[in-house]
Each structure stands twice: as structure tokens, then as C-alpha cells.
Amino acid sequence: MNHLFLIPVSIALGLTSLGAFFWSMRHNQYDDLDGAAARILTTPDQPLPLPEPSRKSEVQPDAG
Predict the structure, then answer these.
(1) What 8-state DSSP symbol labels residue 1?
(2) For the segment 6-29, what is each residue's pLDDT rounded down to a tens digit?
(3) Rg of the chain over CA atoms, in angstroms?
(4) What CA–CA distance (Å, rounded) separates 30 from 39?
(5) Considering 37, 46, 52, 62, which has the largest number of Cβ atoms within 10 A of its Cβ?
(6) pLDDT at 60 over 80
(7) How many C-beta neighbours within 10 Å does residue 11 have?
């Protein structure tokens, strides 16, 4: 079998990942690496709100 089509596919994947890395560097994605780790320890815990019951989930009896 001819597997030469894998060479352009691998080059395209490599260039795509390199482009994504440079995009993340340009948009300051790696500036505050310790902020989220510290923020999870300092923010107070808040309970999640209870979901509202919907009328769609109620079982309707058959009319017939």
C-alpha cells in the first residue's frame, strides 16, 4: 500500500498545532499560570442553584 499521503497530513497537523501555539502566545494565554490555582483556594464556596422543574418532564396521561 502507498502511505505517502501521510506525509502531507502530518505536515498539516504540525503546522496547525504550531499555529495554535503561536496564537495562544500572542493572546496571552500563558501569562497567569498561578492565578487560577490560588483563586480556587481563596474564593468562598457557594452552593449550586437548584434546577427549575419543567412542565415538559411531567408525565401526561393518555387521552384515549
Answers:
(1) -
(2) 999 999 999 999 999 999 999 988
(3) 26
(4) 16
(5) 37
(6) no
(7) 10
Give how far Cα 44 sits from Cα of 3, 34, 39, 40, Å.
Answer: 56, 18, 10, 9
pTM: 0.50
Q: What are the DSSP calls for 9-43, one per residue?
A: HHHHHHHHHHHHHHHHHHTTTTS-TTHHHHHHHHS
Q: Are 30 and 24 in contact (CB under 8 A)?
A: yes
Look at the block and give the residue holding cell 442553584.
49
Identity at 42, one-letter amino acid code: T
